[in-house]
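User: Could you go from structure to sequence for me? I need the amino acid at each position, not a summary. Structure tokens:
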């Protein structure tokens, strides 16, 4: 069976950068607290009118350029996002139209921060069935539109950005996706939610509360579940890839909190210099963290031929996932 390969990556984020010092001016917070508790120094925040496809399309174009394919070659577009331009058409269909990817079919995966890794899993399964396809997996969010700037406990954490990757089972070049594993627990969904944009609390309801449009998170609880589940799913991904934990040479973790990242590095006995971290300049871009980090790690030379790379992610739902890639 021909392996699934990642043949190109790309990423894009809003130009507007908001520093911790900028936040100090609009809420009761400070750079020291944010840096010590999270590792974040600044984040990209969309300006009014900027939307998911403004970043998804350039990220997709970069990934396709690296993969050496055109939009017309795409068979499928999967968008992992909570924040498509519109609820209907989907983010995937918006991206398809803007790229002129007329041969593809497109859809969204709603798995919060785990959306990109969920997309990788769907693409991998599809490629086992028909390896000659070209699949674009996009992950990212303009999550700032759901940030309550009065809630310092969540507002300082998030930023906007989108990443993308092209996957195929055709050809001999590209980085081999050895395994992808997913998990979720809907019973704990209340720990991290946006209540107000579904059918349970429609905007047309008489008692609609605009505050329900914001992300609410029980940070401490999420912290514990994030570590436990990312560790477990990562071991499962390594096992199914047929490798021992000692063989992992680089980690690309979800960028939600530097303390979580450091705990993961310790658990897997990988020194921090071999763990990719860009949280300081992006914050948590939700489904964007993994593909943006993957793209920057690839382009910046952090990933080298022969690396055995672990991706691991956790997000609302609750959802989580991990993947192992052999870098070529
Ligand atoms: N500035 C200053 N003080 C603050 C701020 C802030 N921005 N936010 C909270 N505080 C205060 C609190 O009010 C509290 O004060 P008190 O002790 O007087 O009551 C104190 O700081 C400690 O607050 P905690 O919430 O207990 O702080 P904690 O150390 O748990 O850090 C954090 C909070 C950073 C949110 C952490 O819990 C965390 O990272 N959780 C995990 C987040 C995560 O992994 N999310 C992943 C999924 S995201 C997705 O899917 C979209």
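Assistant: Here is the amino acid at each position, in order:
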């Amino acid at each position: 069976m021909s392996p699934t390969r990642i043949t190109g990556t790309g990423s894009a984020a809003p130009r507007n950068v908001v520093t911790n010092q900028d936040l100090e001016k609009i809420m009761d917070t400070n750079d020291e607290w944010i840096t010590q508790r999270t590792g974040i120094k600044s984040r990209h925040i969309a300006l009014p009118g900027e939307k998911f496809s403004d970043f998804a399309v350039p990220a997709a174009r970069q990934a396709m350029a690296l993969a050496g394919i055109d939009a017309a070659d795409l068979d499928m577009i999967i968008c992992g996002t909570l924040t498509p331009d519109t609820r209907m058409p989907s983010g995937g269909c918006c991206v398809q139209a803007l790229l002129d990817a007329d041969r593809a079919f497109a859809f969204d995966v709603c798995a919060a921060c785990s959306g990109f890794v969920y997309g990788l899993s769907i693409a991998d399964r599809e490629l086992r069935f028909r390896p000659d396809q070209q699949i674009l997996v996009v992950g990212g969010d303009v999550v700032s539109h759901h940030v309550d700037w009065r809630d310092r406990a969540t507002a300082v954490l998030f930023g906007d950005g989108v990443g993308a990757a092209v996957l195929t089972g055709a050809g001999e070049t590209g980085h081999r996706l050895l395994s992808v594993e997913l998990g979720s627990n809907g019973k704990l969904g209340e720990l991290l939610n946006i209540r107000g944009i579904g059918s349970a609390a429609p905007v047309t309801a008489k008692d609609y509360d605009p505050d329900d449009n914001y992300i609410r998170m029980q940070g401490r609880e999420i912290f514990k579940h994030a570590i436990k589940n990312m560790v477990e799913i990562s071991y499962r991904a390594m096992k199914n890839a047929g490798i021992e934990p000692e063989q992992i040479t680089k980690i690309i973790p979800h960028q939600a909190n530097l303390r979580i990242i450091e705990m993961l590095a310790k658990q897997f006995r990988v020194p921090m210099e071999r763990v990719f971290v860009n949280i300081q300049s992006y914050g948590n871009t939700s489904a964007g963290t993994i593909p943006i980090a993957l793209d920057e790690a690839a382009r910046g030379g952090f990933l080298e031929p022969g690396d055995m790379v672990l991706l691991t992610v956790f997000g609302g739902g609750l959802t989580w996932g991990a993947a192992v890639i052999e870098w070529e």
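One structural detail worth keeping in mind: The longest helix spans residues 219-241.
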